[in-house]
Fold:
Amino acid sequence: QVHLVESGGGLVPPGGSLRLSCVASGSIFRITAMGWYRQAPGKQRELVALVSDNDTTTYADYAKGRFAISRGNTKKTVYLQMNSLKPEDTATYYCNIDLLTDPAGYLEAWGQGTLVTVSS
Structure:
C-alpha cells in the first residue's frame, strides 16, 4: 500500500504565505506525477498545480505567479509554496500522486487533505 502524509495547512491572513508538504511512503516503484488539488465547500475539486517526473510543471490560472510546486531530492516529497493568499483560496488541499508499484502496476494515491483558511 501507499501512504501520503500532508502538513502545512492552517489559518493565515490575506496576503500571507503557507507551505504545504506531502510525503509518500510504501510500495513505490516509480512516481510519475505529483500534484495538489483543492476543494472548497459546495464546489468541485480542482487542480492547483502538477509536476511530472521530468519536472515539467502545470498551474491553474489562479495559481500562476502566486503558487509554486516542487519536489524534494528523494522525489517522494512534494511541496506547494503559496504566496499572496486570498480569501478565495480557502479550501481543503489534497496531495495526489500517480505511481507505478512495479513495471506492470499503476496506482493513484490521495492524501487525507489539509485545511487552508485565509481570513483576517
Remarks:
- The longest strand covers residues 91-102.
- The chain has no helices and eleven strands.
